[in-house]
Amino acid sequence: MALLNIGGNNDDAFYRYKMPKMITKIEGRGNGIKTNVVNMVDIAKALARPASYTTKYFGCELGAQSKFDEKTGISLVNGAHDTAKLSGLLENFIKKFVKCHGCGNPETEIIITKTQMLTLKCAACGFLSDVDMRDKLTTFILKNPPEQKKGSKDKKAMRRAERERLKEGEAADEEQKKVKKDVKKKGSAPSKDLASKVVSTKKKTSVSDEDRSSPAGSQGDENETADDDDDVQWQTDTSAAAALQRIQEQLSAVTAEMVMLSTNEEKPKKAEIATKGSENGTAFSNPHEKLVMEIKGNLKKGSTASQLQSFLESLSGTPQEVMSALFEALFEGIEKGFAKEVAKKKNFLAAATQDEGSRMFLLRAIETFFVKSSREAVKEVALVLKALYDADMLEEEFIVQWYKEGLCGGNKNSPIWKNIKPFIEWLQSAESESEE
């Protein structure tokens, strides 16, 4: 759809206010001939004005009847009129009822004042433009006012809420001032009361400690300690023994035991995990099982391929051990449809095989995994290699080298190499054809 600049600024190709080019169609014959503005709804949306306004303006300027159907969106003007003529009238409509008289931008809104006057409020510069009330379209706009935007009502509600908050804040400030004045009037009486309470509590604690150490305390000693309170600096013993003693004194026997358990030194976490695993019968018999469980735990958290790569680098173990554990963690327990699962999870394998050396580790991990797998899974070894080969994760040189090493190892009768043999022959034949 061709677009035009709103307001006749056709020289500027980067002008952001645009509207579709007008499309007209002449319908009927004789006295019933009419001009249909096909895309009047789209033009009105670009101008942020109702389509009935533009249609009525054409009728007023041409002295013909005009009608806009709200349901169907059809805009009709009686008579046969050229597209150029209607486009010129549309430019006049934009100058009078759309463009701001201050900045010239079409970001305006029609506002009807209390005195039944029309003004254009610009959202760009805030300028209020007066509309010529002598135009015939103004009476139609007053009878059919534009719909107010929902944002204006929301703004009014926000302003009311802000006023209420300000009033509540002022009331709270006044209350705080009254409280401060009352405290100043009372003077230092509250502070003296607090000081007396603190001194009395200190006396009680000191007396209780003396009673435990020497139950036969005399009244004369109490009077002496009371007289010397001003020169004493009170301190609390923060040692573990003193804390336990205070706990035992203040709490019952049962609660004291619970708190004492929490004060003991914690055992190392690794030792706890090992003991719990041995008690439950889930202790790792070898490092391989431990690596598999760690990788499974990371995958359950929903880690991405890049996150998995950094996690694998942090594991303790050789690259071959980590790769074997990764392959087993991804595909353990799968028998049918093994190749499809490899195609789904190839992103994780790709993250672990960024360099060429890791690709050989992947092939050896496949070998160790399929040695333990069932016959149904072993039948899909060639399909797995084909999927990884198509994904550019394994190259022909590595696959052939790995295959030859497996045959030289004395496992020629292994079902793995028997199932891989057709794939190797296909690779070699494809290479010979490409060379020819």
UniProtKB/TrEMBL annotation:
Q: Which Gene3D superfamilies match?
A: 1.25.40.180, 2.20.25.350, 3.30.30.170
Domain named W2 is located at 277-436
Family matches, as InterPro entries: ARM-type_fold, IF2/IF5, Transl_init_fac_IF2/IF5_dom, Transl_init_fac_IF2/IF5_N, Transl_init_fac_IF2/IF5_Zn-bd, W2_domain
Extract one GO molecular function annotation from the record: GTP binding
Q: Where is the composition biased (Acidic residues)?
A: 221-232
Q: Name one GO biological process term.
A: formation of cytoplasmic translation initiation complex
Alphabetized UniProt keyword annotations:
GTP-binding, Initiation factor, Nucleotide-binding, Protein biosynthesis
Q: Where is this region: Disordered?
A: 142-232
Q: Which GO terms describe its cellular component?
A: cytosol
Q: Does the keyword NAD apply?
A: no
| Top-rank taxon | Eukaryota
One matching Pfam family, short form?
Answer: W2
User: Which segments show compositional bias classed as Basic residues?
Assistant: 178-187
Compositionally biased tracts (Basic and acidic residues):
146-177
Name the protein family: Belongs to the eIF-2-beta/eIF-5 family.
Q: PANTHER family annotated for this entry?
A: EUKARYOTIC TRANSLATION INITIATION FACTOR (PTHR23001), EUKARYOTIC TRANSLATION INITIATION FACTOR 5 (PTHR23001:SF7)
Function of the protein: Catalyzes the hydrolysis of GTP bound to the 40S ribosomal initiation complex (40S.mRNA.Met-tRNA[F].eIF-2.GTP) with the subsequent joining of a 60S ribosomal subunit resulting in the release of eIF-2 and the guanine nucleotide. The subsequent joining of a 60S ribosomal subunit results in the formation of a functional 80S initiation complex (80S.mRNA.Met-tRNA[F]).
Q: What is this protein called?
A: W2 domain-containing protein
Please report the organism this UniProt entry assigns to the protein. Answer: Tetracentron sinense
Q: What is the lineage of its organism?
A: Eukaryota, Viridiplantae, Streptophyta, Embryophyta, Tracheophyta
